[in-house]
Amino acid sequence: MFRMKLSRRLVRALAPISLLAVAALPGCKRPTKAGEAPAGSASAGAPTGPCAQFVKSICDKAGAQSQACESTTNTADLLSPDTCTAANKQIDYSLKKLAEQGKICADLTKTLCDAVGPQTQTCTMVSVQTKAFTPDRCKAMREHIPEIIDQLKKMEEGNKPLSPDQQKAILDPPAATFGPPTASVQIVEFSDFQCPYCSRAAQAVDKIKEKYGDRIHFTFRQFPLPMHQNARGAAEAALAANAQGKFWQFHDLLFKNQQKLDAAGLEEEAKEAGLNVAQFKKSVSDHQFAPNVDADMKLGQQVQVQGTPTMFINGTRVSDPTNYEIIAQQIETALKGGARSG
Description:
Layout: H1 8-23, H2 49-62, H3 67-76, H4 81-89, H5 91-116, H6 121-129, H7 135-142, H8 145-159, H9 164-171, E1 176-178, E2 185-191, H10 196-212, E3 216-222, H11 231-243, H12 247-256, H13 263-272, H14 277-285, H15 290-302, E4 310-313, E5 316-317, H16 324-337
Parallel strand pairs: 2-3
Antiparallel strand pairs: 1-3, 2-4, 4-5
């Protein structure tokens, strides 16, 4: 995470790496600035004739997702066929200039990948994403190489399996669970009741529970994101339901009715789940379980939770917690591994 005193210039340099890395993960994250669009999202019509040939030559060299490809596509749509015909005759000049401009980004990519490891997931992300950067962006980033490398190393650290101490930390504190604590496969999910991706993850977990039964132990932890205005209240309410032994009934209702997570909606779900409503309302109004939510949030930050849902199976991060097949495959691998991690 960025230190609060970072200069605006440094934040601008780091932003492409951190935001694009987070965007590659499935789930809910902090939104980017309004109006921003990814590279390659130009709305102009596709060029035709000699202009299409010129665009193809540039995009084949620079990459379809590159800023150069996008800019050329937009510009070529405004050019006459005669102008593009002339440009095609001198395409070698354009490609040479393109190579010169791209060298600074290629050098940046090599420097960053050498620092984090050429075979790492983070290097792969950098190699893909820097293709969309302008030379000016790469030049600005080169002025902050140490800080960017530090950020990338933290990202790569998040890709590694948890240490035994980290795994123990996310398993031990009180939380809503199902399955025997002694199961060889330990699953921990950090979730947000207002996140639509978490609702998909909940459906996948239902299938996992049905298939694997007492062979797994599942722990649900709260990680309400700040841009979801009702997520924090829903998290505290879910723990109030847990105190009455009705967490999973309440959990299912919240994900089924994500548009009704305000106070009135939570009370309605509490009634449907069969809770003692008076006790529930007092727990919620007194914020009785706020410290528990804070503790879960702190645990999530310690294990590099950057969005929801985030799931670990025996300490190994699941690449897509919304996908039943991916979760099941990782469970099968863990079952074959035998002993419980952590």
